[in-house]
């Protein structure tokens, strides 16, 4: 029998080693028979790949990184972080103390203004009045000197003053440290009415605020039911407040039988048919031109087509 030789490990080439094996690493003999039960380790260790990533250094794992080595990052401790937090804490505390102090000051000043006689009413001033006397207004306001300024109910005082018939609007305000100012706007008469032998002044809203003789030159309103709720009254007042002074000053009497039938009686006894209370400015301009014509009655109810006779 011929002696079968086994090749030495590593002596053959890589290709020869592969030929001596079957598929799956099972050795075969020269006769081509395989022995699946006999598994051998691969002779060529180059079939295994051993990849090692060392980050570009040859140091041991526990060796600290050199700051000059590439790929290494030195972590520096953050300096001043604690100091910054302490500074923020001090700043927040300072802000809190300032806020609390400001609130305390405001409360103290409010208490002084509300209770202390140092800021009490010493002066009461009245402005805007010409007919109504100041003592009457002060008495109606019911204000007392020596009362703490903050305790004065200005709304209630204004309400009391507004009850004076000739007062149209009123405002009561505090002026520190010790003054109350009452500002009023008085009603102005636009026309007067007469009934039962008495004459009443009427303002632009139709409110009769005084029983007295009218001032010279004030026009008389003649209508069946004068008052702020009467449509004819409102139409007449709309005309008297909507025309220029050169027309209003010539009117002696305004007669209204309905809101669309308004007639002006001028001081020179001429008559102007006005119609309704619309387009008052155009009618006034037309009247200014036609009054230069001879006549006793002028109709400007249609301002584009006036007539006179």
UniProtKB/TrEMBL annotation:
Residues 1-12 have a biased composition (Basic residues). PROSITE patterns: POTRA. Gene3D superfamilies: membrane protein fhac. It is found in: Membrane. InterPro entries: FtsQ_DivIB, POTRA, POTRA_FtsQ_type. Residues 119-187 form the POTRA domain. The keyword Secreted does not apply. GO terms for cellular component: plasma membrane. It comes from the Bacteria. Keywords: Cell cycle, Cell division, Cell membrane, Membrane, Transmembrane, Transmembrane helix. GO terms for biological process: cell division. Residues 1-85 are annotated as: Disordered. The chain crosses the membrane at residues 95-115. The keyword Cell division applies. Residues 56-75 have a biased composition (Basic and acidic residues). Its main location: membrane. PANTHER family: CELL DIVISION PROTEIN DIVIB, CELL DIVISION PROTEIN FTSQ. This is Cell division protein FtsQ. It comes from Williamsia marianensis. The lineage of its organism: Bacteria, Bacillati, Actinomycetota, Actinomycetes, Mycobacteriales.
């Amino acid at each position: 029998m011929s002696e079968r030789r086994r090749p030495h490990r590593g002596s053959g080439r890589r290709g020869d080693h592969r030929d001596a094996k079957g598929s799956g690493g099972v050795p075969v003999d020269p006769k081509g028979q395989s022995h699946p039960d006999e598994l051998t380790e691969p002779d060529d260790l180059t079939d295994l790949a051993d990849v090692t990533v060392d980050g570009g250094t040859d140091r041991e794992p526990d060796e600290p990184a050199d700051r000059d080595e590439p790929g290494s990052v030195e972590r520096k401790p953050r300096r001043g972080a604690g100091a910054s937090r302490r500074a923020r804490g001090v700043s927040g505390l300072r802000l809190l103390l300032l806020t609390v102090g400001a609130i305390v000051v405001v409360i103290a000043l409010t208490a002084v203004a509300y209770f202390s006689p140092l800021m009490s009413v010493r002066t009461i001033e009245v402005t805007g009045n010409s007919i109504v006397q100041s003592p009457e207004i002060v008495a109606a306001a019911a204000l007392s000197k020596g009362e703490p300024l903050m305790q004065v109910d200005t709304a209630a005082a204004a309400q009391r003053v507004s009850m004076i018939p000739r007062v149209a609007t009123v405002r009561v305000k505090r002026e520190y440290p010790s003054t109350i100012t009452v500002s009023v706007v008085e009603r102005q008469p636009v026309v007067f009415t007469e009934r039962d032998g008495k004459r009443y002044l009427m303002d632009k809203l139709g409110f009769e605020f005084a029983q007295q003789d009218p001032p010279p030159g004030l026009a008389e309103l003649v209508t069946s039911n004068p008052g702020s709720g009467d449509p004819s009254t409102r139409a007449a007042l709309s005309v008297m407040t909507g025309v220029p002074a050169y027309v209003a000053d010539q009117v002696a009497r305004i007669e209204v039988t309905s809101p669309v039938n308004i007639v002006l009686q001028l001081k020179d006894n001429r008559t102007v048919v006005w119609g309704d209370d619309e387009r008052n400015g155009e009618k006034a301009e037309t009247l200014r031109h036609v009054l230069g014509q001879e006549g006793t009655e002028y109709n400007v109810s249609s301002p584009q087509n006036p007539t006179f006779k």
